[in-house]
Amino acid sequence: MGEKFNWGEHQISPDGSVELAGYNLYRELVEAQSYCTLIAKSHYENFVISNWFTPKEIKQHIENIYAFCRYGDDLGDDAPFPPDQRLLLLQEWQDDLQRAAENEWTGSAKHPIHIAIQHTAKEKNIPVEPFIKLIQAFKMDQSTNRCNDWAELKQYCVHSADPVGHMFLYVYGHDNQEMRGLADNTCTALQLANHWQDISRDLDQDRIYIPLDEMEKFGYTIEMYEQRVVNEQWRNLLSFQVERAQSLFDEGRKLWPQIDPRLAVDLQMFTKGGESILKSIRRQKFDTFKKRPRVSKFSQLQMLFSTWRKWRRAEKKYKRSQQKLT
After folding, report:
1. Could you tell me the residue range of the domain that residue 203 belongs to?
2. Which helix (H) or strand (E) holds 19?
3. Fewer beta carbons within 10 Å, N or C terminal of the chain?
4. Can you give the pTM of this predicted structure?
5. Residues 187 and 210 in one domain
């Protein structure tokens, strides 16, 4: 795992006006995109690995999107301000995005990441909505730490996970509502797998993502949760959550034959990774409080090698399809 990126200092004036770290740092597109590449490469190893299986012609766009996601996430989670002031930071982040998106992405943004995003959105015909939804998810994190039911949890995933899948589809040239719906299954499943993997970490931050009405249905109380009690009720409850995520992964597979074969390989890799987390949860009999479920290094290497082989075949298949068009 890489080090946290040093964004600099955000400024909030007494009147509530905000100056985000990075404003006017770079004004030219080349510099802005180099900044996004630096952010992407300095963060998390999972991005670096997945970037190995990204076509060269869209690699910069993916790095731009990653930088956007990372900056917003760090604003919501790591900025040294209380939640009400983090909301001010996130609102300014959204305002600058919308400045970039004015007049079909020809507006004037202050932040270099948004200058890069503006280029990606224009090149790939990405609407502003998925970017705004992600920012709204970061805002939700400041005030919501419980989900009353599945509908609320799903709505959170609609904002926090699904937009990323939509962006990837656009970057690969797929503007199709049915495809976006199928991609939502995979993105939501990945979000759920990460939630169930990080149950103990989230509880340390007073965040509980398991729907409260389902806890009640299985006879498991908030008090038990806070005390990290693992009993039959807990195992049945978490098993239900795991199987729901698995069902969504299964539905998401329907998208693979319909899309660019190279993107399909990426989705297969993400799916296998998420399913491996679910398998790990089952193996430790749903006790995710004492030990965080992990995918073994050996399994990771197996997935990496399998993905590499699939990627080579997918790249050849894509090139053949392009030759037929010329």
Report:
1. 144-293
2. strand 18-19
3. C
4. 0.90
5. yes
